[in-house]
Write a structure and sequence with these properties.
Chain lengths: ~375, ~375
């Protein structure tokens, strides 16, 4: 396909728009999941939604998108709240509770799906698209549904912005201030479930959790501000959706869901390495710079001790006498000379008054005026 | 029962036991979700191994896939060490990416790889008996039976050899390290065993359901016992039960065997979760209710001790004063009387000598901040609990 297809091909435009919106809502709500240390909740809920889809089909016998999603929503919510109850009432930890609900609900869902497949009902094929998702089946009404859900969750987010922000950073304090943390908790969990259910058709049960996590984890690296993070996560999610769809449309046999997830993973990787504050690259650069700085300071201190033995602090000394001190290099000395802390003449060095002054106050704990 | 049926159940039971053993330690070490990560991320390893060997049961493929599992663990830990994201986020980032690579590999090479994407999630236990191991023309039984049998034997041997070390490092990693047992070796040993088991079981029950077999029996057993040995035995028992019962349920419904095995495990867990003595929801609610009543009783006795005047000790006044509803105050009064802590004469409540003594001792416990000791005190004084 050509790039121009992108704007003329109606189906492709619908799909791209759908995945973009999905990415945005997932990024937005996923930020909350990541910050609340509930990253794997999405994984559990998306798997837990499967029996809901199958049961909705079994009871109604029709394959209407809305009904199936409603079933998924109910069973996702049941799963989410059962996890909370397990952690609260028993000694099982949250990881076990998540794994339990994830695998048991999914297993039950698979039992139902394989049962349905054997039923003499011509209508039943295609439920398994929810396993890996088929973005190609997105139609305009699905996109509207996603857009509507995004709008509603944005509205709720703005409405409860202050409360949710407080809950994220200090749940106990929120409670002591008299906010209903239980309500807020249920609210945010429900919206996360809604986002997951919307994504099932596109990305599928198995990969949905990455949609929720990856944009938020990437956005977290670029900022310490909640609003910026949510905005960035939405943008990253939308980008992953658009590029993932474009790439998978350009090749045969490339399902959209996995490609979107891989694009999101690349965004995460780039963020991990290149973000200026937390990124691994700049962290390493900072680390090396600090180490060099420390070496320079150590050399200066050593010189200071030699110079302070003499009446004239600027009395020249041979560079050779620094030899039993391991920390210096020619570069260090040059750097010190550049800053006019020492003078180098031939193979001799001498401290300047400025250098002497600086070395004497080097370990003062008072903050640097610079 | 035909020979095939017996073989399927045998394979299912062996898979269940092989999963339950590492599962017990994963649950106790709070690393249950790692099994989820491993089970998904071995997919690219399996696909690549399949390219090389063209045989899902080949030992090379199993080792290659297990290696991918261990790499996943290392990758997750490397991301955690950067401190950029929390532990669970690291898991959630790594395995979908690897799984996606696997799915894409399968889809791109659909013509060469006889790996069905449904089989990846579900396994094909029903077909397992048809892939038979032939040595010199004679039939040695299904291949997967040999694969999982070997894995189980190795796991059991390792378990027996390193039981003490595993137990120690699971419950007190610090002590284990000071005593000279490398936590690192045990950790990666467990991870390797888990990976190999997951790969071996993958063929039979699929990626997600192997997680059910690992976590669910161990979690169910953990609600019933505090003893590691008993927990291991119980979880193996639950696994085998789920395997057999699941097979027959699947037979009945003509549905996926793996799906019905985990459904049975789910039902089993649900029952234990509700009714387990001590850890179950019902017993936890019961305990909460009892403690609430007994705290009320204590408050009530302290109130009595503080007031000598008759007016303050009148039954009706108490209701107003401590602001209890009628049902609750009647229950508290009943409990106190049944335990001979109070007497009621003309609607005026009096502490008995026993009640006086209990209140004194309770007070001294509370003021010295030894809240746990109050349980022992209750044991000594109460004939009936709340």
């Amino acid at each position: 396909m050509e790039l121009s297809d992108f704007f003329t091909n109606y189906t492709l435009r619908t799909i791209t728009l759908g995945t973009a919106i999905l990415g945005a809502i997932c990024g937005m709500l996923g930020s909350f999941a990541v910050l609340r240390k509930q990253s794997l909740l999405g994984d559990a809920i998306s798997h837990a939604a499967l029996p809901g889809i199958a049961l909705a089909f079994l009871f109604t016998g029709v394959k209407k998108q809305e009904i199936l999603l409603l079933g998924a929503l109910v069973s996702g919510l049941v799963g989410a709240f059962w996890i909370r109850s397990i952690v609260k009432h028993t000694r099982l930890k949250s990881d076990t509770a998540l794994g339990l609900i994830l695998s048991l609900f999914f297993g039950f869902g698979m039992l139902l799906l394989t049962y349905i497949q054997k039923l003499p009902n011509a209508n039943q094929a295609g439920l398994d698209k929810y396993l890996f998702g088929q973005a190609a089946t997105l139609v305009e009404s699905d996109v509207w549904l996603m857009a509507g859900a995004t709008g509603v969750s944005l509205l709720v987010l703005l409405l409860f912005w202050k409360e949710l922000k407080l809950l994220l950073f200090d749940a106990d304090y929120t409670q002591t201030l008299g906010f209903n943390t239980r309500f807020l908790d249920i609210l945010i969990t429900s919206f996360i479930v809604i986002a997951i259910v919307l994504g099932l058709q596109t990305v599928g049960v198995v990969l949905m959790s990455a949609m929720l996590l990856a944009p938020a984890a990437a956005a977290r690296q670029w900022t310490n501000k909640l609003s910026t993070m949510i905005f960035l996560a939405s943008v990253f999610g939308a980008l992953a959706g658009v590029f993932g769809t474009a790439i998978s449309a350009s090749y045969d046999n490339l399902s959209t869901g996995p490609v979107i997830v891989l694009v999101a993973a690349v965004i995460v990787l780039v963020s991990f390495v290149f973000s200026p504050e937390r990124g691994l690259l700049f962290r390493e650069i900072r680390f090396r710079r600090n180490r060099k700085d420390l070496n320079r300071k150590k050399t200066l201190t050593f010189m200071y001790h030699i110079a302070s033995d003499h009446a004239d602090i600027s009395h020249p000394h041979a560079i050779r006498i620094l030899n039993n001190f391991q920390g210096y290099t020619r570069k260090t000395l040059n750097q010190l000379a550049e800053r006019e802390l020492i003078r180098i003449e031939g193979d001799q060095w001498a401290m300047t008054p400025k250098g002497y002054e600086e070395a004497a106050t080097l370990y003062d704990q008072t903050p640097d005026p610079v | 029962m035909s020979g095939t049926q017996i073989e399927i159940q045998l394979i299912a039971a062996l898979v269940a036991v092989a999963c339950a053993i590492p599962g017990t330690f994963l649950v106790l070490r709070k690393m249950a979700m790692i099994s989820d990560a491993i089970s998904h991320s071995i997919l690219p390893g399996i696909v690549l191994g399949f390219f090389l060997t063209q045989d899902l049961n080949s030992p090379l493929l199993i080792l290659l896939a297990a290696l991918t599992g261990v790499i996943t663990v290392i990758l997750v830990e490397a991301i955690q060490r950067t401190g950029l994201v929390k532990e669970d986020t690291a898991i959630g980032l790594v395995f979908p990416a690897l799984f996606s690579i696997g799915v894409i590999l399968i889809a791109r090479n659909a013509n060469d790889v006889h790996l069905d994407i449904d089989a990846v999630l579900l396994g094909e236990l029903a077909f397992a008996p048809f892939d038979r191991l032939l040595v010199g023309g004679s039939d040695w039984g299904p291949k997967s039976l040999w694969v999982i049998g070997t894995i189980l034997t190795v796991t059991l041997t390792l378990l027996l050899l390193f039981f003490k070390e595993l137990k120690l490092s699971t419950f007190d990693a610090g002590l284990a390290a000071t005593l000279g047992f490398s936590p690192l070796i045990l950790h990666y040993g467990l991870m390797t065993v888990s990976s190999v088991t997951v790969v071996g079981a993958f063929d039979a029950v699929g990626a997600v359901l192997v997680v059910a077999l690992i976590i669910a029996p161990a979690a169910t057993a953990y609600l019933l016992t505090d003893d590691l040995r008993k927990m291991l035995l119980l979880s193996c028992g639950f696994g085998v039960f789920a395997a057999i019962a699941g097979y027959w349920l699947a037979n009945l419904l003509d549905a996926s065997i793996a799906g019905s095995m985990s459904t049975v495990l789910g039902l089993l867990f649900f029952v234990v979760y509700l009714f387990a003595p001590g850890q179950g929801v019902l017993s936890s609610l019961f305990r909460e209710r009892r403690q609430r009543l007994e705290v009320s009783l204590l408050v009530f006795l302290l109130h009595l001790q503080n007031h000598q005047e008759k007016r303050e000790r009148h039954v009706n006044h108490l209701r107003e004063h401590i602001n209890w509803q009628e049902v609750r105050s009647r229950r508290v009064l009943d409990l106190a009387r049944k335990n001979n802590l109070i007497t009621i004469v003309d609607d005026v409540v009096d502490l008995t000598p026993k009640g006086q003594q209990f209140t004194d001792e309770a007070l001294s416990y509370i003021t010295t901040n030894k809240e746990t000791a109050i349980e022992e005190l209750k044991e000594r004084f109460f004939l009936f609990r709340g």
